[in-house]
């Protein structure tokens, strides 16, 4: 929290000058102030090395041997926990930054319940008995977000909805006629959202191999949710901090130099943007499912299904 507050202060010229004046008065080397704040935390990861070296030169019959060995195990666990939390915070920043680039986002923030992206890919969503829509699925822990590509803005998505996976049943649909929609489907996966009055979602994949990857991804999502519920649960304050860090990526903090010019603060902690697999070479799903979907209506976003 202290580092986040300091990053906010760097946006103001007077604070930049004040921090630089304090550094010059003390004759300190040119290290950002937030670097000093992080130093105690960074040294925690060195404690296991020091304890391991101390244990190496301690006799097994020494009265402190057992205590040193126990301290070494504890500090190794602490170091692993710090590294894992740091990884999760960086992941939250990437998710928050990705959400800012999705047009028309509705409802709760993505990082309110999710912490990592598991899989993404294009599928055909069967909306009614005679229509399908090409969409992109983003599978996160606890939820599945579906969007459409913006045809005017490159690498930009338009939010269409989400499915809460904690109360959702995943069904492997065999090829043929689906009883709930009364249409023929192929390589389909059905989701029964129990949180929305038993609402059905049917998604058709490009191939059987792609469908199997999605089924495995849904299983992995449930496994990760179980692991996180038992070990790591970031508090709401940490998620809010990640959101603020993502917002600051658009306007990096500044620092005052000897020449009086403002530069980007080298101690800035923001993570890089989430890289999404968007390829212009991918053809429409309808062309690869021609035996099951007819696309002769001339409409770009909705296609007729052959029942």
UniProtKB/TrEMBL annotation:
PROSITE patterns from the UniProt entry: DH_1 (PS00741), DH_2 (PS50010), PH_DOMAIN (PS50003)
InterPro entries from the UniProt entry: DBL_dom_sf (IPR035899), DH_dom (IPR000219), GDS_CDC24_CS (IPR001331), PH-like_dom_sf (IPR011993), PH_domain (IPR001849), RhoGEF_domain (IPR053086), SOS1_NGEF_PH (IPR055251)
Ranges for domain PH: 116-223
Keyword Membrane: no
GO MF annotations, alphabetized: guanyl-nucleotide exchange factor activity
All copies of domain DH, residue ranges: 1-85
Signal peptide annotation: none
One GO term of the biological process aspect: intracellular signal transduction
Pfam short name (any one): SOS1_NGEF_PH
GO cellular component: cytosol
Keyword annotations from UniProtKB, A to Z: Guanine-nucleotide releasing factor
Protein name (Swiss-Prot/TrEMBL): DH domain-containing protein
Organism: Dendroctonus ponderosae (Mountain pine beetle)
């Amino acid at each position: 929290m202290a580092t986040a507050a300091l990053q906010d202060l760097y946006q103001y010229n007077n604070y930049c000058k004040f921090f630089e004046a304090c550094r010059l008065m003390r004759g300190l080397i040119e290290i950002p102030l937030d670097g000093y704040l992080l130093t105690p935390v960074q040294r925690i990861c060195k404690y296991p090395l020091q304890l391991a070296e101390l244990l190496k030169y301690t006799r097994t019959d020494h009265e402190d041997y057992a205590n040193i060995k126990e301290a070494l195990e504890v500090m190794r666990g602490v170091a692993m926990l710090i590294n894992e939390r740091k990884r999760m915070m960086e992941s939250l920043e990437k998710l928050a930054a990705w959400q800012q680039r999705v047009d028309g986002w509705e409802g709760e923030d993505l990082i309110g319940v999710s912490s990592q992206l598991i899989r993404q890919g294009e599928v055909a969503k069967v909306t009614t008995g005679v229509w399908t829509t090409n969409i992109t699925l983003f599978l996160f822990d606890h939820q599945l977000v579906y969007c459409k590509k913006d045809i005017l803005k490159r690498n930009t998505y338009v939010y269409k909805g989400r499915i809460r996976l904690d109360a959702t049943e995943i069904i492997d649909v065999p090829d043929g006629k689906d009883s709930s929609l009364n249409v023929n489907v192929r390589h389909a996966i059905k989701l029964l959202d129990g949180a929305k009055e038993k609402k059905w979602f049917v998604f058709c994949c490009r191939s059987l191999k792609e469908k199997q990857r999605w089924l495995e991804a849904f299983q992995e999502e449930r496994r990760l949710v179980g692991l996180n519920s038992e070990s790591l649960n970031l508090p709401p304050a940490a998620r809010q901090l990640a959101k603020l860090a993502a917002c600051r990526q658009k306007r990096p903090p500044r620092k005052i130099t000897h020449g009086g010019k403002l530069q980007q603060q080298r101690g800035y902690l923001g993570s890089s943007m989430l890289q999404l697999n968007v390829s212009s070479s991918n053809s429409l799903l309808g062309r690869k499912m021609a035996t099951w979907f007819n696309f002769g209506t001339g409409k770009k976003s909705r296609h007729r299904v052959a029942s």
